[in-house]
Specification:
By secondary structure, this protein is an all-alpha fold. The chain has helices at about 5-35, 45-50, 55-80, 85-110, 110-115, 125-140, 140-155, 160-180, 190-215, 230-265, 270-305, 310-335, 335-340, 350-360, 365-380, 385-405, 410-415, 420-440.
């Protein structure tokens, strides 16, 4: 990571991760597609899965955020040739994955039904959502350990294996979804709960595959579980980077929950449209997140090795690729929104509202590409607090208040404009923070 041409290195590191993250997006979308066909007369099943999204996002935020902290510290330790320190970070990362799962197991057993009850009064939505989310949370160990083992492999450049893991897990999910949802091959017809069973089965399969690849091929990072002891200092160092990332991504869960509360005042269909949008946008955003996952260890390694020019060139290349990806997403949302929504068996009301929503919200995609990359740069350089500030400003300080104020117009279409407004503010903040960081940190490497 310190000698290969930057553009080639970024592509070789990121391409497998971009493919992996695209496959990860299938976990969110496939469930919704199959669930939308459970009852062709209403959207209650699809709404239930959509309202579950903030809680699922929170689990992913904790898993990925902790992985970001582990990944960044591992890259720095390896760049500085501190292999014992790297192994200690890896062991404590796995310990934190186990602790995170136990927290969500408790939440899954106690708070799922109240979570839905505060969002809607429709009993079929509450029942379906409770069944779906309870399974996803109580069996989320596959999610947490899969993501952690993937980050251990990413830190040493073995990103191809993460693509295999995600691809295999997604394939399991896709195959099992119709079997469990509709009761094929002698299985009971489980409906929305079947979608959850297929999802956790795919996650567990990915986890087992990731464990195998790590222990078989990732020789730079070794974890001896028999001799492992939790280290308060290692946990503190991990969360120094991870906590802002977790908070930043968790804020997204708060934002989705808040938007659902605003939109459901119009109709349940408005909340369903928002849920469908979030499923669809993952196909655009996930490749950029994959690009970032390839970029972060490159920047971390070269920061540890004191190679300034490679850091700035990596940032420049990543921004260019992110903007290109986002522009493709923008074109798709503008040109064929109706065809995209047909995948979800959209009712007439969902279709008419959804076409307008996709076209308005997607206007912020290109700006978001730059913001996402720069926020990850802050994390890679150990200044994740700046990323957290940007995320808070975008989703809490600007987006939700703007959406609420626009909702007072009485038009749900006006609410969607809150997204471009919030993204413009966040990109301006990112640019200010980046050039300040470049002057004070990068140029002094």
């Amino acid at each position: 990571m310190g000698v290969m041409p930057v553009n080639k290195l970024l592509l070789s590191m990121s391409a497998p991760m971009m493919a992996s993250m695209l496959v990860q997006a299938l976990y969110n979308v496939v469930d919704s597609i199959f669930v939308s066909w459970i009852d062709k007369t209403n959207d209650d099943a699809l709404t239930a899965v959509s309202l579950a999204f903030p809680a699922q996002s929170l689990m992913i935020a904790v898993a990925v955020g902790t992985g970001v902290g582990v990944n960044a510290l591992l890259s720095r330790r390896l760049g500085a040739k501190d292999f014992d320190g790297a192994n200690k970070i890896a062991g404590n990362g796995l310990f934190l994955a186990a602790c995170s799962y136990l927290v969500f197991l408790v939440l899954g057993l106690t708070l799922v039904r109240p979570f839905f009850a505060v969002q809607t009064q429709v009993q079929s939505i509450i029942d379906g959502g409770t069944a779906y989310l309870s399974i996803c949370m109580c069996f989320s160990f596959g999610l947490f350990f899969n993501i952690m083992y993937e980050r251990l492999m990413q830190s040493t450049g073995k990103t191809m294996f993460t693509m295999y893991c995600q691809g295999a897990g997604a394939l399991v999910n896709i195959v099992l979804d119709p079997i469990f949802i509709f009761g094929y091959f002698g299985m009971p017809k489980m409906g929305v709960a079947g979608a959850a069973v297929a999802t956790v089965a795919g996650q567990i399969f990915s986890m087992l595959l990731a464990m195998f690849f790590h222990h078989r091929f990732n020789r730079e990072v070794r974890v001896n579980l028999r001799r492992f002891r939790p280290s308060l200092r290692a946990v503190r160092d991990i969360y120094a980077v991870a906590l802002p990332s977790i908070i930043m991504q968790s804020i997204g869960s708060v934002m989705v929950f808040g938007m659902n509360k605003i939109l459901i005042r119009f109709t349940e269909t408005a909340a369903t449209v928002f849920g469908v949008y979030f499923k669809l946008q993952s196909f655009v955003f996930m490749p950029v997140f994959g690009l970032n996952n390839g970029m972060v260890p490159i920047i971390g390694y070269n920061y540890g090795a004191g190679k300034r020019e490679r850091i700035t060139k990596t940032v420049r290349c990543a921004c260019i690729y992110a903007v290109c990806i986002m522009f493709i997403g923008l074109l798709l949302m503008q040109l064929i929104p109706r065809q995209i929504l047909m995948i979800f068996n959209a009712s007439d009301s969902l279709m008419s509202m959804g076409v307008t929503a996709l076209r308005i919200i997607s206007l912020h995609f290109v700006l978001a590409g730059v913001g996402i990359v720069l926020s990850s740069v802050f994390q890679a350089l150990g200044h994740a607090f700046r990323s957290m500030l940007v995320s808070i400003a975008r989703q809490i300080v600007v987006l939700l208040p703007a959406a609420f104020l626009l909702s007072l117009s009485g038009s749900v279409s006006a609410v969607w404009w809150a997204f471009p407004i919030a993204e413009l503010v966040s990109v301006l903040m990112c640019l200010f923070f980046y050039f300040d960081l470049r002057k004070k940190v990068i140029n002094r490497v």
